[in-house]
Amino acid sequence: PTHQSTDCGFWPYSLYYVAMSIGNPAKPYFLDVDTGSDLTWLQCDAPCVSCSKVPHPLYRPTKNKLVPCVDQLCTSLHGGLSKNHKCDSPKQQCDYEVKYADQGSSLGVLVNDSFAVRLANASVVRPSLAFGCGYDQEVGSSTEVAPTDGVLGLGSGSISLLSQFKQHGITKNVVGHCLSMRGGGFLFFGDNLVPYSRATWVPMARSAFRNYYSPGSASLYFGGRSLGVRPMEVVLDSGSSFTYFSAQPYQALVTALKGDLSKTLKEVSDPSLPLCWKGKKPFKSVLDVKKEFKSLVLNFANGKKALMEIPPENYLIVTKYGNACLGILNGSEIGLKDLNIVGDITMQDQMVIYDNERGQIGWIRAPCDRIPKFGSSLL
Ligand SMILES: *[C@@H]1O[C@H](CO)[C@@H](O)[C@H](O)[C@H]1NC(C)=O
Ligand SMILES: *[C@@H]1O[C@H](CO)[C@@H](O)[C@H](O)[C@H]1NC(C)=O
Ligand SMILES: *[C@@H]1O[C@H](CO)[C@@H](O)[C@H](O)[C@H]1NC(C)=O
């Protein structure tokens, strides 16, 4: 979800979150892992004007934890939000607002409190880091209980927790995730776990869309055949549950899938997603239906033979009605224009590494339910 921008992003709604201990005494909070935005924030009792029901008691800041608006982190936060940064007096607090594409938003104030972080050698450090205390949320489409207390912003901007870890000399400016298809997975900071020689790497491209991590533009293949669409600007966003293609590649993909459909499948309407198929019997998992579909490939122009393979299990979802649905959605419908977002469904069971030190993005297939033996790191 979640981009600090007024025209793209979604209300936090990702299936992947981490527990972090924040404050003194430290209390646990669940945070949505979001490589698509910079600011980490918690629903917050400041007091709260409008908060969702969240898994833990609301975080309560104290006055001495407020980050002043003259602080450089406040300036960079506002730079990232592309708003005019007004700071009339040095004592003034740092207010901000984040907005999401589904009309959700969060109003808050920047605070500074300690995060308990366990290092690879098991010792714990407690740096004071700046994050948002969100006290006035407007929920977009979802009105249910929020699965998380807030968002863990892992973008490349200087307000990002990742950049703050680096500033405090805790880890290198490298983060990676491995999201398991069976739920769970792991997140790591620093480069100890990174399989440098085995992963596929591309230089990070400057996304026209803020601080998004982008491997650049790619051409799209289905079943080994080019779909003949214009190069697609791709960004990777762990905060988005689904993958979104812009109108032209989406149309080309839907046409190719329909033209290639196995006789055992019939298009069916399912309340979960726009394009679904049923088989002779309801499907229990993607494994029951994956052999009926071909793989997609994104071929990145920036890298040498930099392919991101997207097998059916990385673009199909089996719903509770036993249908197989396309988990790649039409980004134009939510105003994404030319942006293509690779979300969780497509990144599952791959280790994806965002290396801001070397300015590159890498990926490698891996079973994500256990930590591979590539090394050790801060988890
Ligand atoms: C955060 O708090 C620490 C410890 O109280 C202080 O040293 C640091 O300057 C503060 N940082 C900001 C951005 O306010
Ligand atoms: C763990 O590593 C940190 C940073 O490298 C170091 O400061 C600390 O002393 C180490 N702790 C132990 C128990 O070795
Ligand atoms: C995608 O969305 C756009 C904008 O709503 C629409 O014009 C287009 O027909 C959609 N494409 C498909 C294949 O549904």
Automatic annotation (TrEMBL):
Family recorded in the similarity comment: Belongs to the peptidase A1 family.
Protein name in the entry: Aspartic proteinase Asp1
UniProt keyword terms in alphabetical order: Aspartyl protease, Hydrolase, Protease, Repeat, Signal
Gene3D superfamilies: Acid Proteases
GO BP field: proteolysis
PANTHER family: ASPARTYL PROTEASES, EUKARYOTIC ASPARTYL PROTEASE FAMILY PROTEIN
Domain Peptidase A1: 16-364
Catalytic-site annotation from UniProt: 34, 237
Organism whose genome encodes this protein: Aegilops tauschii subsp. strangulata
The keyword Transcription regulation is annotated on this UniProt entry: no
Superkingdom of this protein's organism: Eukaryota
An example Gene Ontology molecular-function term: aspartic-type endopeptidase activity
Xref: InterPro entries: Aspartic_peptidase_A1, Aspartic_peptidase_AS, PEPTIDASE_A1, Peptidase_aspartic_dom_sf, TAXi_C, TAXi_N
A Pfam family recorded for this sequence: TAXi_N
Protease recorded as keyword: yes
